[in-house]
Amino acid sequence: MKISNIILLLLLSTFFACNNVAEKKNDVQELVLQESKDILPISSFVSKVDYLELKVADAGVEMGEIEDVKLIGDHLLVKHRMSGRHGFLRFTKNGDFVIEIAGAKTPRIKNPKDVIAYKDGFAVLADNGIHTVSADGKYLQQLVRGPMPGARFFYADNAFQVLNEQGLGAIRIEFPAPPKDRQMPGHLPKLLQRNTYAGLEDFGKDGIHYFSVLSDTVFAYSNGVDRPLYVLTGDEMPTFAQVCAQLPDGNEKKLLKYLRETEHVVVRKYFENKNYLYLKYWVGSDPTTVLVDKKNGKKRYFGFGVNDVDGGIWDEAFLLSERNELYIPITAYKISGHKISNTKVKGFDRLQARIAASGNPVIMRCKLR
To answer: Taking the complete model, does pTM exceed 0.90, yes or no?
Structure first.
């Protein structure tokens, strides 16, 4: 057996020991993260493209760089960063601005990271704990105090479940919990923590699916049980988790140098719904995307996409909706600066004219086939 496979099995064994979960190996599917430099026309997997304009100009709202997009019921929540500070803005499904959920107007929430539905409003994960905010943006209270180990969380079994991005060991940490019962991770050096990533998807009655690069695994959480679904492996390259398991002793700069000099595979985006699995990852210094059709198991690997549907932009996806739509934020600057190379394809030119007048960012929605 290869050394990389042995290390991966040890990591999984550590997780199961920490969470008292026993699973059969043949229940877990393997997904190989292959490198691809193919340039793929998006019409091969996208049937339709439309645009949702975020109307911030008319509302007099300043929006910085968009870092995340979430759909919670009829709410569209957009995480943005401006002047080094993060915030969440709430929009209607038509793109009309409603209220700021967390940001400059909620100073007690230090650096908001994630937002979920909670009771009649929202819960916000931040650097200094977990807070609650009403649906109309009124700050309510702080439910959990202290630093948080990650940037993603969900609420289940009467507790907040925070995904660990700070060290190997427990991947999911429950709050609140008595300190003696809480499984706190062994901390990775802070310079390495910047390379970690965790993502989750809410499947409603079917539970939560979540992923962490510290385990190379997508888990399903339901009724207090974590069940591994997919194990991600590199194609002739170790994964980020496997490299971390072999880090030599030394100071943070030496460890970061070792990580940079050891070519590996690391996932940067994980999206999933009932029909598709979408992963953006790096193989060494090359980006690759894989789209998996869960109905038939078909996989599409590509390095870059070309928008041949309407002649517009193909950019970074931030959400895969239940309606099989990829949400891709695009700034007004990118829209105005895009040169339509295929003049036979129509549609994007009309968007350019509209955004030139408003200056608003948009969210491109790509309907998957």
So the answer is: no
